[in-house]
User: What shape does this take?
Amino acid sequence: MASLLDVRDLTVTFPGKTGPAHVLDGVSFAVAPGEAVGIVGESGCGKSMTALAIMGLLPPGASVRGQLWLGSDDLLVLPEPALCDLRGRRIAMIFQEPMTALNPVRTIGDQIAEGLALHLGLGRRGRADRVRELLDRVGLPSPRFSPSFYPHELSGGQRQRVMIAMALACEPDLLIADEPTTALDVTTEARILDLILEVTAASGMALLMITHDLGIVAETAERVLVMYAGRVVEEGTAERLFAGMAHPYTAGLFAASPHAVAIDPGVRRPRLAAIPGTVPEPEERPTGCPFAERCSRRTPMCIEPPPLAALGEGHCVACFHPLAVGEGVS
Ligand SMILES: Nc1ncnc2c1ncn2[C@@H]1O[C@H](COP(=O)(O)OP(=O)(O)OP(=O)(O)O)[C@@H](O)[C@H]1O
Assistant: This one.
């Protein structure tokens, strides 16, 4: 099937103190129409930069190379007005913290209606009807919830529901959810994830779920990209990858995930095991395997960059010493 989103060799660089800092280094992946893809990695791996590059919202100072195809449009060469038209209409994004993403001095109804006026040209009456329909759709029905509410009158979970309503407003082809439940308690997290899955499946929307938690990926994605230090280090269908994580980093994330039981109900662990060390800063990244310094399996050959190579159908890994199926990381 033709891809909806095709990211090719995406590289994002900022000027650093000692030279260019590559925050993304040759990232490539595709999302098919209606597909749910998860991007997972620790803080600082480049997940948000990937999302912001797709949205055309990178911070000032960023320089971008590569290609970002949405259907037949390369987003990296589209002029700003065309990109602006595309945001909300074809791609929408839900951010980590709804309180900062929502405008505190405008009603939720006005904020949801904005995209409807801009992209669909709906009149006042049409917008009001659609806002009520969307609030209802995301579990904020009237009369209990009114479009005239301000964000501060809602709980964190309810605000995230408003963000979902805004994202759904124009029925985009792709929804990017960047850590959408980080600010929520566990019960609310489960409800919001269920809602995102339900609305995307019902409307045939593709989903790019960005998270640091492999458990969330296991619950939401059909395909998984594991990112480390600005690169994709493992990619596979959720079925393949969770049946045999091959990169020592992915296995480390699994060992550190409090939700690992969602991936493997048989898992028994006395305690969570953190990966030693931290993600190297963009200016300090080695030219070879970026994970080598933290990896118990490294050998002298890891001073070379391992290519992302196929392990089997629907599964690739960038590691010279991948784990065999069933093998744990020591
Ligand atoms: N404005 C900026 N200028 C320079 N470097 C930046 C800027 N914003 C982020 N970075 C760097 O880009 C790298 C990737 O950041 P990014 O926010 O994409 O990580 P992430 O994986 O999404 O982490 P998190 O889960 O914490 O959001 C980090 O090393 C970060 O320090």
User: Anything to note?
Assistant: The mean pLDDT is 90.
